[in-house]
Task: inverse folding
């Protein structure tokens, strides 16, 4: 990999993807996004991995799509490249993904963090969709996911002015799970990832799928989807293990089958 580092066994059952274009503030060029897509696909298939963390560095999670790569492009170039199909694939990852965010999470960087399932932010993190300042608008889900998290008025303000919000403000809106001192943001993300990794990976993935479904469909259909997944879990050994462990007053040992 040229622009990311991947550690499959960063902690027990936890993989880490680190964006690695520090000089460019981890600007998301096409190759980097392709590398994230490919490694997520591989990690999703690896039974040893149960939770995935995506992070950048202290200064920047990512300062957006690579403006220099896009500057000279026309509509048909953009259509042919179809860069957002990569994002669709990332969004299909079954295992939970935690974004560990410090510094700038702007434009595509904010969108990448929002495509993840949870966010741990350092107190220096800044979130924003500044595309409007360069004559365009968010294209990787910003107008949709930010609006769902922040509500119409605040999302509209950020998208139309390009202003940033702080980690604390993002926490207030429920965009991030928690804010911690900068030296702890990765550690805190690992702690959360490890906790989730002790659960049944099958139940975790079906629960993730069900929560995500609530953003796509109306309540009745969502409840139906949830119920099917709930019933499906009763054909997994992990369900027997989890419930027997409760009855026998011991800790469950989930094997993911
Ligand atoms: N694309 C390409 N290069 C970028 C970049 C980006 N999104 N963001 C930063 N860089 C580069 C800078 O060009 C600079 O490179 P050079 O040293 O070669 O000049 C280097 O990273 C460091 O950046 P700055 O010198 O600008 O650092 P700063 O601390 O003064 O400012 C910043 C930091 C406020 C984040 C500023 O870099 C900035 O405004 N970046 C662009 C943010 C942006 O507009 N993002 C949206 C991109 S479009 C998008 O994401 C579309 C989408 O929906 C997918």
Result:
């Amino acid at each position: 990999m040229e622009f990311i580092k991947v550690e499959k066994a960063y902690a027990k059952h936890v993989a880490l993807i680190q964006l690695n274009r520090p000089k460019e503030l981890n600007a998301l060029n096409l190759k980097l996004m392709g590398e994230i897509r490919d490694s997520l696909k591989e990690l999703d298939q690896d039974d040893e991995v149960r939770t995935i963390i995506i992070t950048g560095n202290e200064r920047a999670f990512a300062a957006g799509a690579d403006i220099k790569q896009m500057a000279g492009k026309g509509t048909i170039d953009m259509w042919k490249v179809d860069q957002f199909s990569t994002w669709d694939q990332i969004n299909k990852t079954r295992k939970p993904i935690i974004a560990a965010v410090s510094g700038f999470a702007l434009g595509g960087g904010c969108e990448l963090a929002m495509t993840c399932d949870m966010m741990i932010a350092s107190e220096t993190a800044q979130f924003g969709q500044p595309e409007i300042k360069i004559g365009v608008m968010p294209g990787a889900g910003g107008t949709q996911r930010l609006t769902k998290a922040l509500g119409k008025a605040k999302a509209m303000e950020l998208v139309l002015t390009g202003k940033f919000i702080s980690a604390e403000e993002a926490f207030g809106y429920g965009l991030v799970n928690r804010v911690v001192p900068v030296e702890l943001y990765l550690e805190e993300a690992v702690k959360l990832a490890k906790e989730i990794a002790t659960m049944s990976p099958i139940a975790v993935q079906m629960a993730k799928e069900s929560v995500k479904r609530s953003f796509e469909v109306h309540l009745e259909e969502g409840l139906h989807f949830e119920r099917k997944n709930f019933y499906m879990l009763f054909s997994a050994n992990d369900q027997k293990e989890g419930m027997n462990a409760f009855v026998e007053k011991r800790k469950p040992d989930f094997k993911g089958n």
User: Anything to note?
Assistant: The mean pLDDT is 97.
